[in-house]
User: What shape does this take?
Amino acid sequence: MSTNDSLVFKIASEPWEFEQIHELNYQTFVDEIPQHQLNKNKKLVDKYHKENTYVICVSDKEVLGMIALRDKRPLSLDEKLENLESYLPPFKTILEYRLLAVKKQHRNTAIFTGIMKKSFDLAIKGGYDIAVISGTTRQARLYKHLGFKPFGPLVGKQDALYQPMYIDIGGAIELKKQSQILRPKKGSEMEQLLFNYLPGPVSIAEGVMEANSAEPNSHRSQQFMDHFNELRKILCERVNARKVQIMMGSGTLANDVVAAQLSVLPGRGLVLVNGEFGNRLRDQATRAGLDFDVIQVEEGKTFSREMLEEKINQVENLEWIWTVHCETSTGVLNDIDMLRELCNRHNLKLCLDGISSIGSCDVNLQDVYLATAVSGKGIGSLPGLAMVFCREDVVSGDHQLPRYFDLAYYEAKQGIPFTISSNAIYALNAALNNSDWQTRFTNVKQWSEELRTEFEEIGLSILAEPQCRAPHVTTIVLPKAISSLDMGKLLEEEGILVSYRSEYLIAKNQIQVCFMGDCQKPPRMITYFLREALAQTEPHDDSAEAGAA
Assistant: This one.
């Protein structure tokens, strides 16, 4: 069923359905596309009819659209392209989509995408490695949005040309097998694999669950302390920091520790706000009783050097600047290098919320006074550990701060001052040891750029301006007519988890696609499902073409 309950997508099985398939075949590939000869019956029976499986869209006993599936060699494309395999990646099983047609008066994206979705489902359930189609050149762009890749020369006649294309069905199946997020399948006790594009919980790295399930060790044992200190060393090396303190807690706790540390400094501060998490820093600074000014810019934008320079020169006794590195709510990455250069020149202490950036993109904490991270975001472990990176010159709380918030107290203890879970530490270590960060950063940047191009091509707007887009977080602004809740739920039903339930996203009608943790390359069908969601939540024109040879 589609959103419109009058539409049913099914495999053709009734005699009257096949009669209408032959009529639609004639209307499309004789009357509209001059591919076959006219006949008196005005019906066209495909030469592979007995071998075809037809996916059709039916409403009130009327066939509105169809596509034929066939896997017997030689395929139709075998007859048009010599040595078909030479154009394709290696495969064992292949499926061909043919005879895509939708009645002229019913052409809309909902029918088209419903037929294609049913066809993809059958290909996945059939275990095919690859599927090919000869798409009309008039809709080559639409097929690309569905995940098809063009190959080889055009086929057909001059007035009916088609572009051979393929989609990697096996790759989508393998990605589902590799996904580590599970959910109960509706109506059964089985579990269904999901594609996870959430900012948390993220897909975890190999070995994390096993480490987390091991027998706990005392955090006072010498063996554990040696392991703990080695882990701290690795963390610092990954981000070019001097020191790091690890504690049980969330990112909010880590930022509260930063606020506490800033409270013992003598001068004023400057909090930078360009989204929800910048606003949270402002709130935490207020709750900590800090003396500070605020620079705020529009969401989707970042801070210019000129703007910051002017404000720095205006504020007397300025001591520190505190900002979010990756503003997760908008997908903006603020410029660390520029901030570091300004702070060094004006002798200011730079503090960063790196919770959504560390482990997801390249972060260099050189000269940064304080920075925060967590185990359950980009690093790819389970949530539960908070980290505060710091320089050697962190000012002592001198008994003014709560023990847990005083970084100097951690350093003075020369060990592990408070109870910490050995399982959480070993899980974090597994995530670090089993992750190639540089390869991850390169892949994530490429995947995001490809998806953003596709999103914009199908009419979706990206909130962040191009020059300051984070390589791993994309916030999509939906048209007013489309509910972000409906869009998110539709994608979730298709096994694609995106972020859409946060209050700030609901209020602004936005959704997010995030690559954090041990993420995998997105399936090529993700844009197809987004297009389907758009088709089911907003009206479209009737320009969707029929036609696959």
Remarks:
- The domain at 8-174 is CATH 3.40.630.30 (Aminopeptidase).
- The longest strand covers residues 62-70.
- Confidence is low (pLDDT under 50) at residues 174-193, 537-545.
